[in-house]
Amino acid sequence: MVIQNCCEMNQKDERQYLEPDELLASIEKEHSAEQNLCDMLERMADNLLEPLDMESARTVILTLRRSLKRHVTLEEQYLYPVLTKRLCPGDLADNMLEHIRREHAADESLAHDTADQLELALERGRVENPEMLGYMLRGFFECRRRHIAWEDAVVLPLARLRLSAKDFRTFSLKEFEATVA
Ligand SMILES: [Fe+2]
Ligand SMILES: [Fe+2]
Question: What is the CB neighbour count within 10 angstroms for residue 127?
Fold first, then answer.
């Protein structure tokens, strides 16, 4: 699995909530794992004229369909709502959170379209339109790299500064798992 399960640690000890440090560290780890995915997609995009690596393609499809949804849901439903409540004037530009939401939606949509094309290639045993798939792969990983770099540099340090344990008392692992199942 390229992007790990952010709540693995907590499922093991059966707690029903995350501490802010745990949640932010998990998001950071998922970003790092997603950077690996982006590297994998870049290699794939660079080699589309070669026979498709079926194993990598299957891993990428699963990651694009499941792990990104999980990550975006964690940010949209838990991190950004609590952070929005705790922001101080001047922390972020007014339209920044709306911009992040639009990027999440666009990235998820592109992830599914790219996964569809890879599934088609697996079915047919070859990439019929390497130029189009290359364009989609590059569009996806370039957007994600930019998005992750910005969240790592701006959002996560800000969240560490502004959030405390009580901000996550309503976080329910059960609800989260049900949402992303
Ligand atoms: Fe994000
Ligand atoms: Fe993120």
Answer: 22
